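Q: Please design a sequence for this.
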């Protein structure tokens, strides 16, 4: 069995909310927990960053000050002792480095950013459209049983593609919209849900 986890909201705080607080730009607080259209969300974010003069280096500096969610590192270690684990995220390698170090470098599949000469994020490049879902389908095609956990709209197709999907601390509207997925609220509960499926 392979466990696939979302990153933000499951193991670390939401990066964009943290950046919004550090930069005092409230418009950056909107995440995939609020907006299901990822392309629209990212295009809006890039426009705000340019307007507010926020460069990639500013975001990276804010991320360095973040810590994993309480209990996340212990949860991930316990999960690794029993299963293979892959983190499937819509974040970017240029963002994730400091957090991966704090989580002891788990396997991460995510995306890449492109910057302009001034250091602003000019474009984002998805590894693959619907990358989380496609990764799960690929693993299943290799004969693995896949159990996945996430918290946001951009996790739903991953949860649907998995043999079993689990929501972790989702917004109430997402839990209500997708009642087929059990809801867990703590890392011990999430670990127990994975163990139950094994």
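A: Design:
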């Amino acid at each position: 069995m392979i466990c696939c986890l979302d990153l933000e909201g499951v193991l670390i705080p939401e990066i964009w909310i943290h950046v919004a607080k550090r930069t005092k730009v409230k418009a950056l607080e909107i995440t995939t927990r609020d907006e299901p259209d990822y392309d629209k969300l990212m295009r809006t974010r890039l426009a705000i960053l340019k307007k507010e003069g926020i460069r990639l280096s500013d975001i990276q500096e804010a991320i360095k000050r973040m810590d994993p969610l309480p209990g996340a590192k212990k949860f991930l270690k316990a999960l690794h002792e029993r299963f293979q684990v892959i983190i499937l995220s819509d974040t970017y390698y240029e963002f994730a480095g400091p957090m991966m170090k704090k989580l002891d470098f788990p396997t991460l599949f995510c995306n890449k950013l492109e910057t302009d000469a001034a250091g602003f994020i000019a474009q984002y490049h998805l590894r693959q459209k619907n990358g989380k879902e496609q990764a799960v389908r690929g693993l299943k095609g290799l004969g693995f049983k896949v159990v996945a956990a996430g918290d946001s709209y951009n996790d739903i197709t991953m949860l649907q593609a998995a043999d079993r999907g689990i929501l972790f601390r989702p917004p109430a509207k997402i839990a209500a919209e997708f009642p087929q997925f059990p809801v867990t609220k703590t890392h011990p509960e999430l670990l127990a849900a994975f163990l139950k499926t094994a």
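Q: Thanks. Anything notable?
A: The longest helix spans residues 38-52. The chain has one domain: 2-15+66-197.
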